[in-house]
Amino acid sequence: MTRPARIAMLGGTFDPVHNGHLRSALELRDALGLDAVHMIPAPQPPLRDTPQVSPRQRLALLETAIADTPGLKADARELERDGPSYSVDTLRSLRDEYGEQARLVMAIGWDAFLRLDQWRAPEQLFAYAHLVVIARPGHEETPSSSLVELLGEREVDSVSRLMAKPHGRLLHVTLPSAMAISATHIRQWLGEGKSIRYLVPEAVENAILHEGLYQRWQSVY
Ligand code: ATP
Questions:
Q1: Ligand 1 atom with the shortest distance to the CA of 109
Q2: Which of 57, 32, 26, 29 is nearest to 43 (CA)?
Q3: pTM of the model
Q4: Which pLDDT band, with edges at 50, 70 and 90, does 86 fall under?
Q5: Among 43, 77, 78, 159, which has the highest number of CB atoms less than 10 A from its own CB?
């Protein structure tokens, strides 16, 4: 019998994509034995005080970052949908694509996990996917009681227990190279004309500088 596909979704604004996202995706691929990690930009980031970069530009930076890395995919499906974008719709579309036996994982960082009970119909996520929460340095707050209640008995303590079923379980992971990089800081530093070298892939840095993204004025760099 062939092994069911193992697929993860890593959603985000990727505004812009950085090495924290990329190392997390790669190490998650290896830790869970995934066939593919779909990195899926959301259409509309919240209002920012730095210059706006379009969804297509964020996607293009993500494609540049991933290049031909095996198992990582820049996935435009949320940008192709009209109206607001909800993770549960994205998971449904991945489930349709990979079939009911696939092991589908929604991966989120600890900061996003803490806000999960504010999402639309969070318990519905488990009808389509497992939830894998990635520890993130600098984000150590504890979950609210409503979140703990929502998760009930879903938590398991190993990848094999997670992968025993197609969806519905929760696993916390700490990845080897946990990095304290955030897109907020990258936007801030670019806005101030500071260097972002070594925080994003070189090709992403070059594209950002070449196109003048996130910069209020021409930086001296
Ligand atoms: P911002 O600073 O603009 O909020 P961000 O750096 O948190 O952005 P997002 O695009 O919001 O990036 O993140 C997408 C997903 O990746 C989220 O689940 C987030 O928790 C996770 N993530 C982002 N940066 C890291 C990191 N350095 N390590 C682990 N997970 C991360």
A1: 20
A2: 57
A3: 0.94
A4: confident
A5: 78
